[in-house]
Design a protein that fits this description.
Blueprint lengths: L2 E6 L8 E2 L2 E11 L2 E11 L7 E8 L5 E9 L2 E4 L1 E4 H13 L4 E8 L2 E9 L4 E11 L8 E6 L2 E2 L33 E9 L4 E5 L5 E5 L17 E6 L3 E2 L4 E7 L6 E6 L6 E7 L11 E8 L3 H17 L5 E7 L9 E2 L5 E2 L2 H13 L9 H11 L6 E7 L6 H17 L4 E8 L5 H10 L4 E4 L6 H11 L5 E6 L22 E4 L28 E2 L2 E4 L12 E7 L8 E8 L2 E8 L4 E2 L3 H15 L4 H4 L7 H9 L3 E4 L5 H4 L4 H19 L6 E6 L27 E2 L46 H4 L27 E4 L49 H9 L12 H5 L5 H14 L8 H20 L4 H19 L2 H13 L1
Parallel strand pairs: 3-14, 20-36, 22-23, 22-26, 26-27, 27-28, 30-37
Antiparallel strand pairs: 1-2, 1-5, 3-4, 4-11, 5-10, 6-7, 6-11, 8-38, 9-10, 9-38, 12-19, 13-39, 14-17, 14-18, 15-19, 16-17, 16-40, 20-21, 21-33, 23-24, 23-25, 29-34, 31-37, 32-33, 34-35
Protein name: VIT domain-containing protein
Organism: Ceratodon purpureus (Fire moss)
Pfam families: VIT, VWA_3
């Protein structure tokens, strides 16, 4: 996860060396779907007589905010503060120049932080304490929370890569350089408390062997002396583990998907922070026709097989009617350059599916990395204009031009909205080192959502849900009513064409000069380029400004900060428009948490991200022409633009590019400094004013930060000696308003007045429902937790004790299917390669093997053939099943006219789906998409619901 590198003060060479990592300890609290935890990493200055300057780096997952930063050098604690980035850097350099021990924490990229520590005394212990808070990421499961601690830095590929010469620049370590100090493999200890609003039903880890105490969060004393609480648990590792893979803990608790509103009253500025979160559950009629384009960008050889399996699943799950698809990638099939599988998207049919599966199986053996920018442009130019287009990006995260890609996608989506040619982008990250910032920012810009499939996880449900979301028409014009009555300080002006008068202009000069209709001036007056930007304010700050996608399977979370003048509403109302009619959700506000700042922290992080990704209300004001719903949104949020003396409306709106940039920078600085939030323009700085001095000249901090755009192999971060300059350092926001806990202590959680462990205060202000119920669920094949036994005793959730989730290579899909298109001849997509924690071989009678053998018979349109393999399920023969089919058809009057082969396929499909639903219930997540596709096809052919019900009943009785 991180590495500490140093250079010796006054060293002529300046080559970076690695300091030994002594320990890594993570303690904290998972409260419903919010995690707050403290990470303490301890290093030692290995030099007995020399001061050193150090650099410390660590990755963060998307959405994590740093709420506290402390350093402890030789027993002395130094607490950090947030300042404007340039000012913080100058303060740090001045302190180091004066010989003080100091540290600077900077965010340079959305998924990485870097801390620089100057003047570390000889032989002293160095402890870095970072407190973080995050909402949990969305995943495919229901009512589950997934906590992930990253340990690797994903590389970024760049076609122009050449190894840079960093000699003499400090904090650099060449790959072949050696260190006089051995750096042992780093170890990790974990102690996490889980406090849920409803009973915990499962705690498990697909990555490590964990010990779980159910019914208590206490860490000391006799467990038998505590009162059992089913809403609580404590999780630790059975022994210290090596940091060779991400730590994943999955907690399942009832009701996490339910809609809920949380409200927090800030103790200082009197604002209210509000969040609305839920897992949508509604249905719309699917798109009758669409274009599906799969963009495959995978460079890691270890992930090529997984990418091929994912692509094959996507293709097999496509509905059979009126859909078109194409694949963009690179393999030996296409040659050395990127190319589309077809010149233009083709209709989904048996032949095109066969070609797609053939390509999916070939990329398992060859690199499929592409130039993502040009590939996306090519897709945009080639896409169909008569049907909605959905792009699915399959990537291992090794992309460097993230910001350029995000902008291109955002522009394409906006163009599609203006031309009524819908265009959306979904992203599927594959592997353990995927940049969450990459897949999440691409999905946000594309108005889709992102998913991650880690090594060893089953992906069927995730792939199916994503494809299903792409085939659902988008809910548009979504708004949240954050007040009981619409803000009425601003009045619509102009005609029905929606003139740009929906945003209020606050006139600072009540008497406007009279405009002469025939002026003697030689030219109209121009606005000076040096005109300062107007002041922009709002009574409601909503984040994200563009609300997230609304579709089943993708958690919806939105925040707002209400000014003190806005009364707190009694309920929130979410509205939108769909092709099937308007949609709405009403959620009552039941309680308000006083004196806490965690919700403000999460809202601020989301607000800062809007500014950093150019998707804020300020950026909307920079558009040449706003859509009507955007104007209404700005009005409802109370956005106002201050009109300066001598300015006309046309002089101000739309905002110029320079004005947008200036306002954005100032807003980020204001957010960071007001709420202790690390942003693109603010940093953390700590100064030891009382420690020993070592006055000297100091190399500017900027020269310590090496080029972060260059690629490297995936780098284990704790105590590893390989270089880290391939990582990016522009990170997650830090929660504002949160007080820093005592060094090494766990912070009280949101709404709790007692410490994390052993707390007796109910979560989130005595809320009866879980907060932030976003449940990133484990992928298919994740380990099932052992059943809880007793009241509080520990049990081990050992990954190796779980049922195996993968089949031996070539066990199932080596031969062509008797009906339809065969699966891969290597590891099957429904029997993914087992993770290192699932090594037990599957027997032929294993339920997953039985399911796989059935699903490989399914045709492109969803039907199954009437073959001996199907008859064997019922211990009979094909002839006997044909006889029963004849009897069944005689009982059904008015059947549609179909060919004999179609009736046999319908009968076989009913037999197979009813068998699967009855005998393989535990694998529902894996067979559900295939069964749904089959039943849709049967319904399409037979048409009569009564006849379909009779066929199913006859199948169950067979």
């Amino acid at each position: 996860m991180s590495g500490f590198y140093f250079v010796v003060v006054r060293s002529d060479g300046g080559l970076r060396q690695a300091a030994p990592l002594q320990s890594v300890a993570v303690t904290g609290l998972i409260r419903d779907a919010v995690a707050e935890y403290t990470m303490i990493q301890t290093y030692v200055n290995p030099l007995p007589k020399e001061y050193i300057d150090g650099a410390y780096t660590f990755p963060l997952y998307e959405g994590v905010a740093v709420t506290g930063f402390q350093a402890e050098v030789g027993g002395r604690k130094i607490v950090g503060k947030v300042a404007e980035k340039v000012a913080a850097r100058e303060e740090y350099e001045e302190a180091v120049r004066e010989g003080k021990t100091a540290s600077l924490l900077e965010q340079e990229k959305p998924d990485m932080f870097q801390a620089s520590i100057g003047n570390i005394p000889p032989g002293k212990t160095i402890s870095i304490c970072i407190t973080l808070v995050s909402e949990m990421k969305h995943d495919a499961g229901e009512n589950q929370v997934r906590f992930v601690l990253p340990t690797t830095v994903a590389p970024r590929h760049d076609s122009s890569f050449n190894m840079p010469d960093f000699s003499g620049r400090g904090f650099v370590r060449y790959p072949n350089s050696s260190s006089p100090f051995s750096v042992p493999a780093s170890k990790l200890s974990i102690n996490m408390a889980c406090v849920m609003s409803k009973p915990i039903t499962s705690v498990q880890s697909p990555s490590h062997t964990i010990e779980v105490h159910v019914g208590t969060t206490e860490t000391t004393g006799s467990l038998e002396s505590y009162t059992f609480d089913p809403n609580r648990a404590r999780v630790s590792l059975t022994e210290d583990a090596l940091l060779d893979c991400d730590l994943v803990i999955i907690i399942q608790s009832r009701g996490l998907d339910q809609p809920r509103v949380l409200v927090e009253h800030h103790p200082k500025d009197q604002t209210h922070a509000i969040s609305l979160t839920f897992q949508p559950r509604f249905t719309l009629k699917p798109l009758q026709a669409s274009e599906l384009v799969f963009l495959v960008d995978v460079r890691s050889k270890s992930m090529l097989t997984r990418a091929g399996e994912a692509l094959e699943l996507f293709l097999r799950y496509i509905p059979f009617e009126n859909h078109y698809f194409n694949v963009m990638g690179r393999s030996t099939t296409f040659g050395s350059s990127q190319q589309a599988l077809f010149p233009t998207s083709v209709e989904f049919c048996a032949e095109s599916l066969r070609e797609g599966v053939k390509y999916a199986q070939k990329i398992k053996g060859y690199e499929s990395g592409i130039e993502i920018g040009s590939a996306f442009l090519e897709i945009s130019l080639r896409r169909r204009r008569d049907v909605p287009t959905q792009i699915f990006l399959l990537t291992d995260g090794q992309i460097s031009e993230i910001e350029q890609l995000r902008r291109a996608i955002s522009n394409a989506v906006d163009d599609g909205e203006r031309s009524n040619q819908p265009f959306r982008v979904f992203s599927l990250g594959i592997g353990d080192s995927v940049s969450h910032h990459l897949i999440q920012s691409v999905a946000r810009a594309g108005r889709g959502y992102a998913q991650l499939v880690m090594a060893g996880e089953r992906m069927e449900k995730k792939v199916f849900n994503m494809l299903k979301a792409g085939l659902m028409p988008p809910v548009t014009d979504t708004t949240i009513q954050w007040t009981d009555s619409i803000v009425n300080d601003f009045v619509m002006v102009g005609g029905e064409d929606g003139a740009d008068d929906d945003v209020a202009l606050v006139n600072n000069n009540a008497s406007k000069p009279l405009i002469n209709l025939f002026s003697d001036s030689e030219s109209p007056p121009t606005v000076s380029q040096d005109t300062p930007p107007p002041d922009i304010s709002a009574t409601i700050y909503q984040a994200p400004f563009k609300l997230p996608i609304l579709c089943p399977g993708a958690r919806f979370t939105a925040y707002a900060i209400l000014s003190p003048t806005i009364p707190l509403p009694k309920e929130l109302i979410l509205r939108g428009v769909s092709p099937d009619g308007p949609v709405e959700l009403r959620v009552k506000i039941e309680s308000v948490v006083e004196g806490e700042t965690m919700l403000h922290s999460l809202a601020a992080r989301a607000l800062a991200r809007d500014f950093e990704e150019a998707s804020s209300s300020v950026h909307a004001l920079g558009k040449q022409k706003l859509a009507l719903y955007e104007k209404q949104k700005l009005k409802h949020l109370g956005v106002s633009v201050a009109q300066r003396e001598g300015q006309n409306r046309s002089d101000i709106l739309p905002l110029s590019f320079n004005h947008v940039a200036e306002i954005t920078k100032q807003k980020l600085i204001d957010i960071g400094e007001t709420y202790n939030l690390s942003t693109k323009y603010t940093s953390w700085v700590v100064i030891d004013e009382e420690g020993p001095r070592n006055a000297r000249d100091v190399v500017p901090v900027g020269s310590y930060i090496v080029d972060v755009s260059r690629p490297l192999p995936p780098t284990p971060c704790f105590g590893h000696t390989t270089p880290i300059y391939g990582s990016s350092f522009f990170g997650e926001t830090q929660a504002f308003g949160a007080s820093t806990p005592a060094f090494g202590a766990s912070t009280p959680a949101f709404g709790a007045s007692t410490p994390a462990f052993g707390a007796s205060t109910p979560a989130f202000g005595n809320s009866s429902t879980p907060a932030f119920g976003a449940p990133p669920a484990p992928a298919f094949g994740a380990i099932a937790a052992p059943a809880f036994s007793g009241f509080g005793p520990a049990f081990s959730a050992n990954a190796s004790s779980a049922p195996a989730s993968g089949a031996p290579q070539g066990a199932l899909f080596g031969a062509p299917s008797a009906y339809g298109v065969p699966f891969s001849s290597s590891t099957g997509v429904f029997g993914s390669q087992a993770s290192p924690f699932h090594k037990a071989p599957m027997s032929p009678t294993n339920p997953q093997m039985r399911l796989q053998s059935l699903l490989q018979l399914q045709s492109f349109d969803g039907l199954f053939p009437l073959v001996p393999a199907i008859a064997a399920l019922f211990n009979t023969t094909v002839d006997n099943l044909k006889t029963k089919l004849g009897e069944l058809r005689k009982q059904c009057t008015g059947l549609v006219v179909l060919a004999e082969g179609q009736w046999e396929a319908i009968w076989a499909t009913c037999l197979t789906t009813e068998f699967i639903k009855s005998k393989l219930k535990e694998l529902r997540n894996e067979w559900e998409p295939a069964v749904e596709k089959a039943e849709r096809r049967v319904a399409f052919l037979v048409y009569n619901e009564e006849h379909i019900a009779r066929f199913k009943a006859f199948a169950r009785a067979t």
